[in-house]
Amino acid sequence: MKHKKKFIKIAIDSPAAAGAGTLAKSISKHYNLLYLDTGKIYRMIAFIKINQKKKFNKKFLKKKIENLNLKKLQNTRLLSDDVGTEASLIAKNKYIRKLVHSFQVNCAYRPPKKFKGSCLDGRDITYKIVPDADFKFFVTANLKIRAKRRFAELKRLKKKITYSEVLKNIIKRDKSDYNRRLSPLKRTKDSILINTSNLSKRACFLKIKKIIDKNI
Ligand code: C5P
Predict the structure, then answer these.
(1) C-alpha angle 199/203/204, rounded to 5°?
(2) What are the structural domain ranges in the chain?
(3) pTM for the complete prediction?
């Protein structure tokens, strides 16, 4: 007899603008999981660095991370490309990664009681933050499609940016995320590859749902 697992942990890693966030959100909603977009933490720190340059030191940052509030984080929109680029630079910092580690682990392993588990997406989730996840996915799409999607997203938000700038930024970010020494983006052997290039949002959701349903 199949027993339904009570608590599930989903870990997703992906390069920028591959559609992982949209997918993680719909999966989390469907299975009632706490969703954490871990990139937002790095974006928030990058935003602070850009806008509060003078105050940006270890002590100030430590306090900010200690007071990090999940609801507030979920409600912030830090989608600009400048913030994303700065985020991938500060994400190489050992001290910063250490500071945000326990916040992510707490969300993954101890979400509020109303949830039946957690779903985190980022760059090092499958092998560092939730290495024992029940489901691991590596979500990707080809470079031009990712740039097109991010460009459309930024246009919807009325950001002044050209397609070629977006493409350039994604290439820069991929280079930095895949090649850094600390917590690089990689597909682990036990992660299922989901290529969203030619799939609609609904098709991606159904593909992952099928995999999860078969195994819970
Ligand atoms: O996911 P998003 O594009 O918002 O992430 C912004 C940047 O934060 C990434 O390019 C990456 O360098 C960094 N990041 C990370 N580890 C994570 C999530 C994001 O290094 N778990």
Answers:
(1) 75
(2) 8-210
(3) 0.95
* Homologous superfamily, domain 8-210: P-loop containing nucleotide triphosphate hydrolases (3.40.50.300)
Most ligand 1 atoms within 8 A of CB, residue of 101, 123, 140 to mutate: 123
Residues 129-164 have pLDDT tens digits of: 999 999 999 999 999 999 999 999 999 999 999 999
What gap in Å lies between CA 118 and CA 69, rounded to an integer?
A: 16
- pLDDT (tens digit per residue) in 50-59: 999 999 999 9
Could you tell me the distance, in angstroms and rounded to a whole number, from the CA of residue 93 to the centre of ligand 1? 12
Backbone torsion region of residue 197, taken as left when φ is above 0, otherwise alpha when ψ lies between -120 and 50, otherwise beta: alpha
For the chain, give the percent of residues with pLDDT over 90. Answer: 90
Is the dihedral angle over the CA atoms 42, 48, 51, 53 positive or is it negative?
A: negative
